[in-house]
Structures are given as structure tokens and as C-alpha cells.
Amino acid sequence: MLGLNLALEAAGLHDVTGVCRRALASTPFDAMQADLLEAGAVVRILEAVRPAAVVHCAAAADLDFCEHYPEIARRINTEVPGQMASGCSLRNIRLIHISTDAVFDGLKDGSYSETDKPRPGGIYATTKCAGEQAVLQANPYAIVARVNFYGWSLSGGRSLGEFFVKNLSRGAAVRGFTDVRLCPTFVNDLANALMRLLESELRGTYHVVGPEAMTKYEFGVAIARKFGYDESLISPESVEEFGLAAPRSHNLGLLTDKLSTDLGISLPDFSTGLDKFHRQFLQGFPQQIQSYQQAPLASIGQPGLSASGLPGEGS
Question: Which one of 65, 93, 107, 163 is at 20 to 30 Å from 86 when CA atoms are compared?
């Protein structure tokens, strides 16, 4: 989801090549089909495209999938980022690696800075944390961006925002976790911040998230009110009541002072991003972005997916 929205944002400003595991159709940028798990795939891509910069977004991002397929998660979330970082370092290519707020266990007050030691729980968080280390060891000039975002995706079901819109629009009852806090960022705002980072001379780890922390329940209620849906359909519940395969961090509020100071910008506040998300909905952007897929995406849980799963309230 981030890769596609980033490519769309950047296409009018740069020559963009988007690399996807499955073929895309009619995109306003060059699209290359590749499986990053194939031996030598990273080197072949870098040699074929010869980019000035890379934003590495690929991940096994479904937490429960990672618990069931830890070796696939390790290869995608740890090995491939290390290969990408090494390949970019050898070719003097600027690199941003996308990581996650989930590298923290969420047991403190939630005001995590980049100097706080990661304490990952579960396979997803552990492999993503190891991926950060692999990237910076192979390429000290790379940027690791810890993110949490929502927006419209190729499949129509990759983000928490889509989960609430899809269900509430048809009057379906959903649960909203009151004990999982995050700093949601509208994906296009994140994309623009990443492009600013690429243009800078910064390196190291940055928290690139929205300035406001909220629970998943509060996020869902905000979606309902903006889109005119019935917020009473959202049931406030605890994540601990469900037998999820992977542990969930409760408090993932990230501080962004380092980003604001070093880059001179702050990401827009939540209400501004939500307005943009709603405006895209009214303008038919979800249908436009889904038109780029040539065939329905593979089913969730299929071994070998490089980015799998419906987040919903399971993430």
C-alpha cells in the first residue's frame, strides 16, 4: 500500500520504477514484476533500474501470518532488507528502509523516542527489528523509518482505515480495541515526508508518524463521524479478549521531535490527514488504485507472500 501510493505521489516529480510481486497494469510510472525472495533478485533489480534512490517497503506485515510462517517472515523482513542495504551501499544509492512502530513492546507510557531500546514481541516485530539492524550494519548511510499508516490500497483491505470504511458502510458491527494505541499517519502525508528525507543528507533511525496517539477504537469512531456512518456499530473491547496468534503492543505512541528538528517539518495532524482520506473516497480514488491490479490478489495466509493479510482489528 505504501509503495503504490508513494509511487503515485512521486511520479509527477521523478522517474519512478515500482517493483511489485505481481504484475500491475496501466500505472503512471514504470512497473517491474519481481519476487524479492528469489536468489539474486535484489541485485538484478538494482542493475536493471540503476536508481538514484530506493524506498524499500516490502514486508510480511500480517502479524499472525508471521507467527505461522516464521521462516518466510525472517527472509522477507530481515534477509531481504539486508541484501537491499548492501546492494545500495555498493552502488552509492540512497536508501530508506520502512520499519514499524511494533519494534517496541508498548509497556511504557508510549512516548518512545529513537533512543529507546527496541523490545519486540512476536515474530513480526522481532524480524522487523532484526531487519533494521541488518540495514544499518550493511549501510550506515541509510535511513530507517518507523511508521504506522492508513490509506487506500490495491486490494481494498490493507489498512485499518479501509477496514472500518468497508464494514461500517454496509452496517456491519466491528470491534475497536480500547487498549491498543498508535499514531496513525495518512499514507500520502507519509509518502511526502519520505521524499523529503530522500532529498536530505540525514541518516539513521527516524519516527515518521502522525503527531497524535489514539486507540484503534478512537480511530474507528473518527472514521465513522467523518464518513457519516453509525459509530455505535463499533464495540469498544480489549485486544486481550481475543485469541490472536501474535502478541499486540498496547501503547505505541512515538515521539517525532528528531524528525521535526533535523528535517524541519512535522507530519500534518490527524484531522488533516483524515480529511484527505475522505476526499479521496469521494473522488473515486479507491476504485482508481484498485484498477492497477491485473487479477485478484492471492488469498491471505498463502506461504510465500511478500506482503500479506488484512490488517482489520487483527493487527
Answer: 65
Q: Please give the model's pTM, rounded to 2 decimal places.
A: 0.92
Q: What's the rounded Cα separation, in Å, for the pair 305 and 125?
A: 17
**305 located within any domain:** no
Structure-block grid coordinates of residue 33 = 514484476
Beta bridge partners of 293: 24
Q: What is the CATH number of the domain that holds 250?
A: 3.40.50.720
Joined together, the cell numbers standing for residue 148 give 504506522
Domain that holds residue 152: 2-290
Q: What are phi and psi of 149, to 5 degrees?
A: -145, 165
Alpha-carbon span 296 to 167, nearest angstrom: 20
17 has which bridge partners?
30
pLDDT of residue 9: 96
The type of residue at 190 is L
User: What is the reported pLDDT for 313?
Assistant: 38
Flag whether 106 is in a domain.
Answer: yes
pLDDT of 22? 87
Among 124, 143, 156, which Cα is nearest to 56's?
Answer: 143
The set of cell numbers assigned to 70 is 516464521
Per-residue model confidence (pLDDT) at position 244: 76
Task: Give residue 311's pLDDT.
Answer: 31
Backbone angles phi, psi at 106, to 5 degrees: 75, 20
Q: How many folded domains does the chain comprise?
A: 1
Residue ranges for the chain with pLDDT beneath 50: 297-315
